[in-house]
Each structure stands twice: as C-alpha cells, then as structure tokens.
C-alpha cells in the first residue's frame, strides 16, 4: 500500500521504516528541511539500535523516501499516518495538540480519493473526532475515514516491538478503515500478532491507560524499595517474589531513580488532565505523578548522604544521562534532576553517557563531559550510576579505586552486588537492598 507518514521523529521514522520493510511504499514527511536533508544523506536524527541500517536498506530498495512536500505524498497515499509530537502543554499539563490539528488541516487540503487518516501520535480521548471535524469542515467532499492506531514502542527496542508486537490496537468507526489497516498490518499475521479492533475513543484511551499502568508499577516498586531500606529487606527479591505471579508479571518491577522519557511523564499528566476535565479524577495516577517527581530529586539527597551529608566542593562522577539505555533521549531523564540537585548542594559534576551527551549539553549547565567511564571517574569523590548502559555493567572496580579520589559508589540501578564492590574498599549504596550503607 502507499503510505504517507506525517512527522519523521521517533514514532514516525521507526513506524515508517518498518512499514516500508513490510513491502509498503512509504513517504516520510517533515517540516524541518535539515532533518529531511540528513535523512536523505543517511544520517539519523535519533539513536535507535539498527534503525540506520534498516533505513538504508529500504531507501536502496525504493520503498522509503523523505520529503518536506506534504501535498504530493498525501495525494498519492491510501493511508496517511499522523505521527507528530504531542508534548505537555505549558501551564496545565494537557497534551498540546496543535501539531496534530495543523497536520489535519494540511491533509484535508491534499487528499485525493478515498484515504484513511490514522492518528499514530499519542492523543487524548476525542482527538480523532476533532481531526475528522477539521477535515470535513475544510473538505466536505473528501472521501476520508479517520482511525486511531496508537504505538507501543519502547525506545531502544522499537524495531523489534514494531515487528513483533504484543498487540495491534485499531480504533475504527467504519469497515473501510478497518480493512485498510488490516491490510497494512497483514505481514504480521505470520507472527500471530493479535489485532484488537475497537472504537476510536477506546483506542485512544487504551494507549494512555497502558502507559499509566506501567508508570504505576515502576512507582510502586520504588516505594517498596524505600520500605525495604528501612526494614532490612531486599527489593530485588521482593520484585521477583511478586513478579512470578502471572497476574502481576516481572516487567517494570526494577527499582531505580524514577521514570522519565518521552512517554510516561507527559502521558500520565495528560491522562490526569483528561480525567479531571471529565469529572472522574484518577487519584492513583495523580499520586504516581507526584511520587515520581519527588523521587528524582530525592536521589540527589541520597548521593549527598552517601558522601557523609555534604558534597560541597566535591567532585561527583555521573555515569548515564539518558532516561534509559540504548537511546539518546534526555526528556524528563532522572539525571537532570539528580545533577541539578547535586549542583545546588555545591558539587562539581562530571558526566559520561555513550549516546546522550550532545542532547544533555543544552539542558545542563556547568557539567564537565568525559571521554569514557574511567575519564569521568578520574579524581572524583563519588561515582553515581544513573543509567544502566551495558558499558557500565562490568566496570573494572580495581581501576576505579585507583583513579578516584574517594571511595563512594552510588548504584541507582542495582547493577552490582555489595560484596564485589565492598571488596575493593568502596562505600556502596544501592536501591532497596540491605547493607547498602555499610562501609
């Protein structure tokens, strides 16, 4: 099928590339000429493992192209996906839908023949209704069906998630839209990926409910970790003990410094606002948002306590800046709050991240960026692991002990075990495990 993907950011680029790899003809459209120029030159605007090679292969095969010209791409398409950003709106936290509605207006002017317009962006309930109203107002003659097809991609594993999904959710109000979307995803039938067809509003809410539930699991285990520290229990064993229950599941039960990224923070806020406007507040999600915000800042205080109650004049080495490994995404990353908190307490901060330093530089002031983990640790009074990149999972602890000025290691991802770290003379602090404060 012929597909136009409006928006060549994370969701649009990954989705468009994977659809092209299925054999569809895909044109990715973006208003940013520099981004399109870079994509046409083979340079990726984001870091996602395997994406550059997949883009190159499908461009070479003639199935994938990039342009700033929306009108011809839409006019030739059987389906047009809206995959533009929906950031949190300043002031109230509601999703900013201005890019979605602007895309709908441009699509309305360009459609030619029957076209399915699909919202791929994460949007609040009722957005599809407004997209349809806009299109019909501008082009009453247009043969258009508006559908919802939310994405469930994990940064760092997005290609695998797209090609081997747990489910495909399609929100359609008529049989023609459903038929087109089933044909688009037909290549996944061999993987037996279930397609759940619902109403449009149900599909929109399903995306928010999924992210809010996962954010709740993360926040729950983080609070249990705090309790474990006070009563001498081990949060990792607690997580395993409850995760083996099939009703609960083991995923998203890893204690840490709080969630961040492009989805959970903005989507939980948007769900809270939607529910408030509907007169049915989601108190549990409101609490999740508040607890997570407080936790990220509390991690800086945890580092200060590990350093004896003061970091003034000390050098703190931070390993990992992105909100998770295998991405360069710094949006709402815990490292931002942690580093700012340490600087407010008087510390000098050095940092290293395999992919995120360029994205971090505009967001963090007065941070010295290192070449690698050991350069970062050189002369530091304490080392803090914030993001669990593979490169940080097997550090040479003897070498760290030699190059560091102090012997404090704060492990906010529970990468190491106490015995191995303490054998090298470190004061080791982790999350929710007994003995983490012992020298």
Q: Which radius of gyration do the C-alpha atoms yield?
A: 24 Å
Inertia-based shape: elongated
Class from secondary-structure proportions: alpha/beta
**Main beta sheet:** 6 strands, parallel
* Number of self-contained structural domains: 3
* CATH homology superfamily of the largest domain: NAD(P)-binding Rossmann-like Domain
**What is the CATH architecture annotation of the largest domain?**
3-Layer(aba) Sandwich
Low-confidence stretches: none
Strand order of the largest sheet: 3-2-1-4-5-6
CATH class of the largest domain: Alpha Beta
Please give the alpha-carbon distance between the first and last residues: 63 Å
Keywords:
about 450 residues; alpha/beta; Rossmann fold; N-(1-d-carboxylethyl)-l-norvaline Dehydrogenase, domain 2; 3 domains; UDP-glucose 6-dehydrogenase; NAD binding
Helices and strands, with pairings:
Blueprint: E1 2-6, H1 10-21, E2 25-29, H2 33-40, H3 51-60, E3 64-67, H4 70-75, E4 79-82, H5 98-110, E5 115-119, H6 127-138, E6 144-148, H7 158-163, E7 168-171, H8 175-184, E8 195-198, H9 200-231, H10 235-243, H11 264-277, H12 283-306, E9 315-319, H13 334-344, E10 348-352, H14 357-360, E11 367-369, H15 373-377, E12 382-385, H16 397-403, E13 408-411, H17 418-422, E14 427-429
Parallel strand pairs: 1-2, 1-4, 2-3, 4-5, 5-6, 7-8, 9-10, 9-12, 10-11, 12-13, 13-14
Helix pairs in contact: 1-3, 5-6, 9-11, 9-12, 11-12, 12-13
Catalytic activity: UDP-alpha-D-glucose + 2 NAD(+) + H2O = UDP-alpha-D-glucuronate + 2 NADH + 3 H(+)
Protein name: UDP-glucose 6-dehydrogenase
Enzyme class: oxidoreductase
